[in-house]
Amino acid sequence: MALNNRYDFVLLFDVKDGNPNGDPDAGNLPRVDAETGRGLVTDVSLKRKVRNFVGLTKGEQPPFEVYVKEKAILNNQNKRAYIGIGKSELLEGDDKKRKGGDAVDEARQWMCKNFYDVRTFGAVMSTGINCGQVRGPVQLTFARSIDPIVTQEHSITRMAVATEAEAEKQSGDNRTMGRKFTVPYGLYATHGFVSAHLANQTGFSGEDLELLWQSLVNMFEHDRSAARGEMATRGLYVFKHESELGNAPAYSLFERIQPRLKDGIVIPRSFEDYQVTVNEANMPSGVQLLRKVG
């Protein structure tokens, strides 16, 4: 089922006593806007969680395979497209040249058809074996916390060592020290966009859209780890436009979702410390608000 509507959405999620997105350039500390102190979570991190949920629920079977995944060799994925369209002979020859020739468009279509994340988020697939590039219809912004966060550092111990050499260096027991970083509490908001025009180019369908909403609602429930503490989707507000081009600017719709601290709360430590105001009055003509969560 082709998409005939543009969608814009607001996703609210929170973290408690966990690290929602570590920064490898800062020793894996939670990402923070240095000027405002507000926490950040990258779009890449959120897309990873969507990919993981799709892989979990759809069993990595076409048309819901995942292109970008742990330990994937992308050129091997690209090679499958030429085998699938019956033109594997185009892969022969000089390894230094991008392979594909005149069949790149056909290979790109095969990749979109078989890989959910390619037809959803897009991909650059010209890293040797050339399947072209896809501009995805679904895009996300960085998530930003509603209020400044505090990063806490905790000392932790391990009652074992990895090697005999380490054991010989220890005096007494085998206890070793480490560090763990957490955010006591943070409520984050991210904005998302679904382009009907790009969806029809990649084959992103109504079924794919419903899977996206399902992923955004449930992705944290299946991404548990000691490092991430407690994370949960707290709100998913979808603005559906009647037309493909849209009936109102996205920013004016996003402004209708306003999470704020309740009166008297200075330091938030739970979602109950916030009040989410949703302005549904005088909605622009041709725009409908769908509350998936919240």
UniProtKB/TrEMBL annotation:
GO process annotations (BP): maintenance of CRISPR repeat elements
InterPro entries per record: Cas7_Csh2/Csh2, CRISPR-assoc_prot_Cas7/Csd2
Pfam families, A to Z: Cas_Cas7
The name this protein goes by in its record: CRISPR-associated protein Csd2
Provenance organism: Nitrosomonas communis
